[in-house]
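Reader question, answered in our methods column.
A reader sent in the components of a multi-part assembly and asked whether the whole thing could be modeled at once rather than chain by chain. We filled in our standard form and ran it. Here is what they sent:
COMPLEX SIZE: two components
ENTRIES:
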Amino acid sequence: MQLSKSTSSEKEKKLGLGVIFKSKMAAILIATAAIWVLFTFLTDGNFLTTRNLSNLFRQMSITGVLAIGMVFVIILGEIDLSAGSTLGLLGGIAAILNVWFGFSAIPTVVITLILGVIMGAWNGYWIAFRNVPSFIVTLASMLVFRGVLIGITGGNTVAPLTADFKAIGQAYLPTVVGYILVVIAIVGSAYLILGNRKNKIKYNIEVRPMALDVLTIVGIGVISLVLVLILNDYQGFPIPVFIMLLLALILAFVGTKTIFGRRIYGIGGNRDAARLSGINVKKHIIVIYSVLGLLCAVAGILLTSRLNAGSVSAGQNAEMDAIASCVIGGASLAGGSGTVAGALVGALVMASIDNGMSMMNTPTFWQYIVKGLILLIAVWMDISSKNKK
Amino acid sequence: MSEYILEMRDIVKEFFGVKALDGVTLKVKKGEIHALCGENGAGKSTLMKVLSGEHPAGSYSGKIIFEGKELSQTSIKDSESVGIAIIHQELALIKQLSIAENIFLGNEIGARGLVNFSEQLNKTNELLNRVKLNVNPLTRAGDLGIGHQQLVEIAKALSKNAKLLILDEPSASLSEGEVEVLMGILDDLRRDGVTCIYISHKLNEVTRICDNVTVIRDGSTIGQVPISEIDQDKLVQMMVGREMKNLFPREEHKIGEEFFEIKNFNVLDPFNKNIKRVKNASFTLRRGEILGISGLVGSGRTEMVASIYGSFQGQKSGEIYFEGKKIDIKNPNDALSKGIAMVPEDRKKDGIIAGMSVAKNMTMSNLVKYKRPLNVIDKDKEMMDVLKFIDEIKIKTASTELAIKNLSGGNQQKVILAKNLLAEPKILILDEPTRGIDVGAKYEIYKLIFKLAKQGISIIMVSSELPEVLGISDRVLVMNEGEIKASLENNGLTQEMIMNYSVGKKNEEVSESYSEETKTSVGGI
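And here is the structure of the entire assembly that came back:
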């Protein structure tokens, strides 16, 4: 809101490349596109086949689900190093329930999700009520959960799963559902973006150029349509991708629209000030860790289902990919900033590198090196662009 | 050589096209204490950053001549090497290190990578003597009070053979007693030939200790005058560019019945349960009353009010009665829901969420007010409140969406005040509400305090500045070492009377000497 005495006419920034590039999101998306173009060349176009892209999104869904929970932990100014082990253990438990105990998919999923919440709350309890730094608590959990997994499986791979359980990670939505999703995406984004714009104008706050808003809606429409066309061209919308997007939508809503979300940003920005503002900081920490635990359970179920097995090493280093995704997506480990959308795009970057390099038959060690360097450069670029301001 | 040790001529410094300094000239004589005054945002700090090398040569235009030579310093180290040292408002000691290690940090005495500790300790003792600080040089800096830390900073500057010492708001967080010590030391330094630039909002200190004063406003020099030719009113006028007859815009307000009481309040130190921060404190509060709480730093004022608000981490015992009912306040949320709000002492640490917008900071404690189904925030309603307060208490901000850290201290404080007013409190606790705030913003905050009192809101104001306590309060509680020593109606009350109680003079002595001048009820209610 400009407080100078000006007329209450609409205030628009001029549309220019500067405005577009200022948006962090746009910068990451452009970088992702660049990575895709590069891989397309290096793989003689194989990277861009509908089959590969469908696989890419399905692979991404596990890191993506972790990242959209991790980003809230990071916004709080905390960290979770145990996410990979939690995912592994919960995936293992799901496999054991399904294979050894013969539970069908639904009770297996329900029990796993409940255990996920409990394991997350366990971390949260030690951090919030026992004041142990989250780095230590979750480092301990990382070891403990991995140990439990090895213990209960006796080091064995638990397989094969029942068909209904396998479907969660491997099946596709019918093609028509994909088109319905596109319509929902366009109508929903138009409603939100234009509504937001109307509000800003009402309170005389500077708004982005109308053209940019329209462009965003059109962009969302085109991207989601292309996405669905690609996925439908192969076999349809993969269920894991659908679950990831659904969860991301819910969490993005919580993060940007609700009182709870606002408070999370407040606590991450300045914990003392938040406490003095009457916010129950401990409660929020427990809830956020429980949510991440729940998402670890979802990711664990997806992974076990996709692999058709519960394995001892499942989810190893997954927390690192998730943290890297959040940071590439603009979250700061100092707390107070980060977005669900950013975390999701970060996960897409990580998955693209994994997928592209595997297609090129590059040895795995290169994937680690490249992912590490990309993380470093992404954060460096973010910091240096901030310093220039 | 001229009589000036330092001449800064026509300094212009721009930040992205905005001129923070627009041709400032500053001339400081050798061996004097030179005051630099101006409202927050006038450019004092920027000017000193230019001088100390934090803004390197080339990033500004103009000339700096120090001891006859033109400076072209490119770093803080460069400035230090010619003898210019700055002591920042926010102390930069490393809490975990000892005094000696802090003083010689970066300039360790020793050879071949090894530190000569005994030599360092000797030197530290010498330096501590010079600043009259009688403590073990091995004491951890974090264990010292703020006043002592300040003295260590001065010792550190002296260790670098500083010829020109810049003190940025050195007394902002000192108690009156500590200020006395500081004044004495500055006097000694002047005798030793050390030149000082003294930046302060506290005009009584400026007029007391300084030789000359330079006033800057909006990035330009308004004038340079000998202290002997100016008084505080004149100085304020130069600083704000308008006449301000009365620093305290006192307004009559009706004081109602007693409705709040604390009884036998005891508060323990959060880290050491053997230390009582507040001892057996009891007091009452009337509707629409402005209750000042005075006392030296460490007298338990902050601990008492923070415990009432439920934000102090130490254990507490005692009873609180509110509108006839006994209430229990376990955390700030309990207090807020009862109608007790607090503006904390340390704005940066406990008040603002630096990276968040002005609007979000303002509504942070009252989000439930805008609750819609699904826990969604009603942004329309929120924005209406934000705009209302920006207008009502004149918060200067370019936008509601601007991060609060970009606002001046005074405007940040107003946002925090607005946040607490949004809670529609019946009792508003203000802990050092005007610390580090310029004169203009202070005046507006005082006006607001009286306006609230008129509306029947009771104010509890903790303040280290006696003129403020006297200028604002209806009644004053004086604390000393955790106890409430006196409750004094503010008519005919003087600074000396409050000081006597705050330094813990025996009650009889005090009441004997003042009993005729004021109603004095000693020892609580």
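What stands out: Residues 176-191 of chain B form the longest helix (16 residues). The mean pLDDT of chain B is 85.
Send us your own complexes using the same form.
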